[in-house]
Amino acid sequence: MNVFRLNKRAEIPTPTSDRPGQFDIKACFDLGSKVSYHNSVNKENFVPVRVISGNVCVQIYPAQRFAIPTGLIFDIPEGHILRLMSTANVTLKKGLVIVDGTGIINPHSGEAFVTLHNISDTPAIINDGESIALGMLEQALVYDITETSERPS
Question: Which of 64, 117, 133, 147 has minimal Cβ neighbours within 10 Å of its Cβ?
């Protein structure tokens, strides 16, 4: 799978040795840029990337859903999808989960974003360069869906 670095500072993923077929996807923020998020009443807003404790980051408050930029465009081979999964560090330690449980990046979708939802009761910080998801390239099955008149047993 080819990867295009849209942002010069974005980190190209490398397969992990302890999780075959999986790789870390990291946040890529530019200081002063704005990141899109939705609040608890589904209103879209934008928050500036800023510096907190010396780190370039965004702060995600409870019930907010952020589209975290990766600075990468994945060239997904025909007949495949790129599946995104939450990491234990982000979920357990920060209370952030990928919206819908699993993210799917389709071919030709432009810059990859990881949509994180804060399900905790405290604000969480995502730093530039921090691992925010695991990626795994999977073959997409092609199949037909047919209605049946018989109830499955």
Answer: 147
What pTM value is reported for the model?
Answer: 0.87
Alpha-carbon Rg for the chain in angstroms = 17
**For residues 145 and 148, what is the distance between their CA atoms, to the nearest angstrom?**
10
Written as six digits, the tokens of 127 are 């730093």
Render pLDDT for 47-86 as a digit per residue (tens, 0 to 9): 999 999 999 999 999 999 999 999 999 999 888 889 999 9
N residues, the chain: 153
Q: Which helix (H) or strand (E) covers residue 3, if one does?
A: strand 2-5
Instruction: Provide DSSP, 32-99.
Output: T-EEEEE-TT--EEEEE-EEETTEEEEEE-TT-EEEEE-SEEEEPPTTEEEEEE--HIIIIIH-EEET
When pLDDT is averaged across residues 32-36 and rounded to a whole number, the result is: 93
Give the type of residue at 14: T
Cβ–Cβ < 8 Å for 106, 76? yes
Domain boundaries, the chain: 2-139
User: How large a percentage of the chain has pLDDT more than 70?
Assistant: 98
